[in-house]
Design a protein that fits this description.
Elements (H helix, E strand, L loop, with lengths): L14 E6 L30 H14 L2 E7 L9 H11 L4 E6 L8 H7 L3 E5 L5 H7 L5 H13 L6 E5 L9 H10 L3 E5 L7 H8 L3 H11 L2 E8 L2 E8 L2 E8 L12 E4 L4 E3 L8 E2 L1 H5 L3 H13 L13 H4 L2
Parallel strand pairs: 1-2, 1-10, 2-3, 3-4, 4-5, 5-6, 6-9
Antiparallel strand pairs: 7-8, 8-9, 10-11, 11-12
Helix pairs in contact: 1-2, 1-10
Bound molecules: S-adenosylmethionine (SAM).
Length: about 325
């Protein structure tokens, strides 16, 4: 039997659209896109969507439901050629939507100001550890210094509050969560700890690396002054803490211990123009072929079907990769 839908659809008042603009990444994180992952050019995959095509697809989504927020993700979005232009085009198309990006920060330093000027409102930078050796073990193709320089450039460019995303991993950060909170506090950034999901390369690591949000909060409360709960915003449950004498907002995103399907207003489109209604659902529906042949009714039908199913509780973890769809 399929799980029931909530009485009021979570997308009734608008959509949060996550646009994965490439599946390429330059970090090779063990839980996401390790070195063993297949190349983007393998398997005769169809031609990815151009910037114009991605913008056109966003326009089709806006015809079906208002878009309240667009997030550019990947793979690594800053590897996409023309990413600043894409932000500018989306800004023009959706002047009232919040436009955000999730990046690993490796190429952010030279681009932060241009992204801001093009109309990007919000930046989330992924940072799982401040320890160089652990960073190298987790993300062997990257450089910790580059991400830290990217964060500083983003703060200087006026992204406020910058958000730092940290996936909870026992052997990488479980014993040093407070150092990441202190780092965020020193930059007036907000930090969000995310539970590791058993998706893609995360699945084999999950049994030994998973740390729940509740355990992480308990660990932090033993080590830092706690100012009290701040309630939920989006998918994050937030708490106020103190680090180095500053107040800092610490969020926890718990897709494993507390799934948020009933309030999920996210739709996803990947770099090949596939619509994915649920991160935990399989596959996706091709929107690019109908776009290329001018079949707008097919696109509208697929979007309406995706919206109609929103709010249903997911039951399985799929075989998809996170770098293909962007979290
Ligand atoms: N390259 C960008 C980045 O590193 O932020 C954007 C894409 S990445 C897939 C988006 C987020 O998903 C990152 O914060 C990453 O740490 C997270 N992520 C990847 N695999 C995950 C997993 N199995 N469980 C939880 N989060 C995961």
């Amino acid at each position: 039997m399929r799980a029931a839908l909530p009485a009021v659809s979570p997308v009734a008042s608008g959509i949060y659209l996550r646009l994965s603009v490439t599946s390429a990444c330059d970090l090779r994180c063990a839980y996401c896109r390790p070195g063993s992952a297949p190349s983007d050019r393998s398997g005769g995959a169809p031609r990815p969507a151009s910037n114009d095509e991605l913008v056109a697809l966003v326009g089709e989504v806006a015809r079906v439901r208002p878009i309240r927020k667009i997030r550019l993700t990947g793979g690594e979005p800053l590897l996409r050629r023309g990413i600043v232009d894409l932000v500018r085009e989306l800004r023009r198309l959706a002047p009232r939507a919040t436009i955000g990006m999730t990046t690993n920060g490796q190429r952010l330093a030279p681009l932060a100001a241009a992204l801001r000027a093009a109309g990007l409102d919000a930046l989330n930078v992924s940072l799982d550890t401040l320890d160089e050796r652990r960073f190298g073990r987790l993300s062997p193709a990257g450089a910790l210094d580059a991400t830290l320089a990217g964060i500083d450039a983003a703060v200087a460019a006026g992204f406020e509050p910058l958000k730092i995303n940290t996936v909870l991993l026992r052997s990488i950060n479980g014993d040093r969560l407070e150092s990441l909170v202190e780092y965020a506090a020193a930059r007036d950034a907000e930090i969000r700890f995310i539970e590791l999901m058993p998706i893609g390369a995360g699945a084999p690591l999950y049994p030994r690396e998973f740390l729940s949000a509740a355990d992480a909060l308990a660990r932090l409360r033993e080590r830092l002054p706690y100012d009290g709960p701040l309630g939920a915003r989006g998918t994050a449950v937030r708490h106020a803490m103190r680090a180095d004498g500053r107040r800092v907002v610490v969020g926890f995103i718990s897709p494993v211990s507390h799934p948020f399907c009933d309030g999920c207003d996210r739709l996803r489109i990947d770099a090949r123009g596939r619509l994915v209604a649920c991160l935990r659902g399989e596959e996706g529906v091709d929107l690019l072929a109908p776009l290329r042949r001018g079949d707008r009714a097919a696109i509208a039908g697929a979007l309406a079907a995706a919206c109609a199913g929103k709010g249903r509780a997911a039951t399985d973890w799929p075989t998809r990769t996170m770098y293909g769809i962007g979290g």
